[in-house]
Structure formats: C-alpha cells, structure tokens
Task: structure prediction
Amino acid sequence: MTTNNIERLQQRLGLSRREFLKFCTGVAATMGLSTEAALAMAETVADQAANRKKRPPVIWLHGQECTGPSETLLRSEHPTLERLLLDMISLDYHQTLDCGAGHQVEHMKDASMAANKGKYLLVIEGSIPTKDGGIYCKIADKTMLQHTIEAAEHAAAIVAFGSCASWGGVQSVGINPTEARGAQEILKDKLVVNIPGCPPNPYNFLATVMHFVTFGNLPELDDQNRPKFAYGRLIHENCERRPHFDAGRFAMEFGDEGHQQGWCLYKLGCKGPETYANCPAVEFNDIGGGTWPVGVGHPCFGCAEDGVGFTKPLFSLADVKTHTPPNEFPLIDQREGSASASPGASALAGAVVGAAVGAGAMAAKKMGTDSDNSDQG
Ligand code: SF4
Result:
C-alpha cells in the first residue's frame, strides 16, 4: 500500500493504518483465512479507495422488507462499514440510497447491467411476492419478480441479504397472503448466497464482499448457501450466558432475580440452541465492543434460522441440539460430593465438553479484547 492510499483511507474511514490492518486481519481471521489473505484484502481495499482498481458494480434491489439490512449497514461504526464498502464497490443502483429518482435511476441501472454483463454483484433485500404475477411489490412499473429475474441473468454473484431475501422472512410465514419467497426459490438455477438475520450482521456482508472483491470468488458455503464462517456454529456454543445454562441457572421471568443476574434465557424461549449465527462473537452496532439481543437480556428469536425465526413462538422452548438440560439440578451453592447434587451430576458431566467449547470461545474473545486494549497503550 502506498502512503497516499493509506492517507486517503485514514481520511475516509477515520482509521489509522494500524487500525485498518487490524480490522482486515480480524475479517480474515473470522473467515478462517491467513495473514497473507488479510494483507491481500487490505491491499485491494486501499487500491480501490485510491481508484487504482476498477470497483465492481453493485445492483441492489429492495422487495418486501423494512430496509433493516441497509440500515444496519449504514448505522455501523469503527470503521463505518458503509464507507469501507463504498470504497470497494460502485453502488450503481440502490432503491433507497439513490439521489436520483424515476426514469433516471432506472436508466442508470439498465446501463450498468448492460455494460457490466457477468461482472456486477446483485444484492437482494426483502422477499419477493409471487401471487398474481407478483403485483404486490412494484418498482418503476415492474414487479420485484421481474426486477429479480432480469438483474440475476448476468450477475457475477448474487447475495440475499437478510432473512426476507434468504427464505421469505416474516412475510412468508402463516397464511403468506402475497406468496412471498426468498430469492433462491425464484432463482432456482442460480447460486444465491444467503446472509440471513433480522437484521443481518453487516460485518458478515462486508466480509463476504471483501472476499469476492479480493479473490474473485465467494467464501465457503454451507448446505443452505450461508457463508460457513458466519453460520457454522450455534449461537448457544459461543454465548456468554452458556456457563449459566450448563450450571442450570435460568431466568424464569423477565425482571426476576435470575434475569437481573444475567442468567441463561433458555426458559424464556431463547432459540440460541437451534440457531446458527455468529452474533455473540461479532455483535452489532460496533464490532467487537457492541451489543446483541442476548447480551442485553432478550432471548434469541432465531431470526437467522429458517423454520425457527418468525415460525416458532417466542415462548416455546428451543430444541437443544447439543444436550438437553435435566429438570433437576443441584443448588448452585451446594458443594461437590453433596448427596443432593447427584441427580444432576451425570447431566453436568455430559455438559463438560460443551462448557469447555463455550469457555474456550469466551476466553479467546476476552483475549482479543484485552489485546485490543493493550494495543491502545
Ligand atoms: S439458551 Fe440462549 S441465553 Fe442460554 S446459553 Fe444458550 S444462547 Fe445463551
């Protein structure tokens, strides 16, 4: 990276060179990539910020949704992800961020897609209604269904950002009056990368785009086409309340003693045990120092998991994919060897592996925080 490139980045992102490299290393580490990959990503972003490399065009469509995915991207800080993103890509069309309107922006979209066949990234936000020919969501006199099929035809890659675009989201559950669908159901012959969540984590989107822009391909995906780096583990595995789950300490009502003490929210309907996402590790609002629902006392809603979020009522208990806690635990102030401790002993022994995994993850996170702090010194 040249000094000019770094200075430009400092100005735009409000980051020092060190902070920027640290951020890229964090992104690479999240995806399980090497330091060399981090440097390659940093190099690519810096080059694109300095206009030394052509930025890939992005066409961003909105269907049925609340604009939460765009909002979550725009509201993040340190670094401001939207600036970082806008330094890497050319956002040629975004229905809520475009300055222009009407025929002008539609012309821009058509021109960009025609000039960049096979090179642009298509991002879809929101579900796509299919009932009655898709008339329940129209933009510029075309249905979202038409927009989606047209834009997907020559896209280099397609990303469904948010649960609505990934699998239909809240619009698709229950009676589904508009027959809302996720992008993959419409584009059956295309690969659609799903980044679900309500809202989805902007960091996961940014990491996926950085990977695509730097290496020209997508990160490894799971069987639901979700990036494995972000959806490879259950929330329950990395949750900071996991030691309470393993010890049988549960909040039973909102505001009760256990809730105030930060105990496990399983009995309040937390869906962390059956939802795959990296929310506890990455958090929201401010990467590494932000917050997430369980962290502030709200049970995980399972928004990132098809068949859980918006489908299972909040009050229902999650299927515990690791192990099911017994109904009876030893009291927490009873010592080892106490006769009354025996009913839960085998369950607790069975939880050791899970606890070790959870503790290891939390220790790693804590080490990261500590080293972050020491770096500032
Ligand atoms: S049940 Fe929920 S609150 Fe409890 S440890 Fe699992 S993810 Fe965390």
In short: Residues 352-376 form the longest helix (25 residues). The pocket of iron/sulfur cluster is lined by residues 235-236, 239, 241-242, 245, 264-266, 270, 272-273, 294, 300 (CB under 6 Å). Strands lie at 57-62, 90-94, 120-125, 128-129, 138-139, 142-143, 155-161, 180-181, 192-195. The longest strand covers residues 155-161.
